[in-house]
């Protein structure tokens, strides 16, 4: 059984409610007429407005939407709730808080188990970098710095690569000084699709948006731009 992870640099329902191409692509990864997709809103502090935006978008798509809010946990057994879902869509926000709370609740282990059983893991921004060894985040000090994450995917990840002015230079600086591993970066609207832990392809909901491989070489940083498949 193939294991899919979709790491989105930006876009999707939370940034582009009138352009749901990435969200529809995510749903297509499950071979069911109406996959059960669960929005995990931990990084935003389970923002009510964020959750409502998820339902406003996904209620109009061919799926069964639900939400996992650790600040308002489901009444049933958490493991039973998680194992019933086909897709987990992790929202943006504070990555450090997300990791701390997931580990406290054991949700990190449950999501890894769900992945092994065929569930798709996905997310935007914090919900993108959380799957990697490391991610570039401002959730610790307010400055963009490396953060150790779950390590399901190898290497590092940077979302919003050209969407936020300081992202690209901060990511390259961190790789150059050795505090981050080589990795991939995605512009807003671009997602990296991994199958069985290996990068399969990049897809995009926006024309002109790109993905990048960023690595340290003997002569410095090498940034390789990759044109994604336009959805």
Can you walk through the features of this model?
There is one protein chain. With 231 residues, this protein is an alpha/beta fold. The chain has a single domain, classed as Class I glutamine amidotransferase (GATase) domain (Rossmann fold, 3-Layer(aba) Sandwich). Helices cover 26% and strands 32% of the residues. It has an 8-stranded mixed β-sheet. It has a 6-stranded mixed β-sheet with strand order 7-6-8-9-12-13. The longest helix has 11 residues. The mean pLDDT is 95.
Short description:
With 231 residues, the protein is an alpha/beta fold.
Features:
231 residues, single chain, Rossmann fold, 14 strands, 7 helices, eight-stranded mixed β-sheet, alpha/beta
Shape: globular
* Overall pLDDT score: 95
How many strand segments?
A: 14
Helical element count? 7
Task: Give unreliable regions as ranges.
Answer: none
Q: Can you name the CATH architecture?
A: 3-Layer(aba) Sandwich
Number of domains: 1
CATH level 1 class label: Alpha Beta
Beta percentage is 25-35%
Q: Which homologous superfamily in CATH is the superfamily? A: Class I glutamine amidotransferase (GATase) domain
User: In what order do the strands lie side by side in the largest sheet?
Assistant: 3-2-4-5-1-10-11-14
Gyration radius, in Å: 16 Å
| CATH overall fold name | Rossmann fold
Order of helices and strands: EHEHEHEHHEHEEEHEEEEEE
Question: How would a textbook summarize the main sheet?
Answer: 8 strands, mixed
Can you give the helix content as a percent range? 25-40%
How far the N terminus sits from the C terminus, by CA atoms, comes to 25 Å
Global structural class? alpha/beta
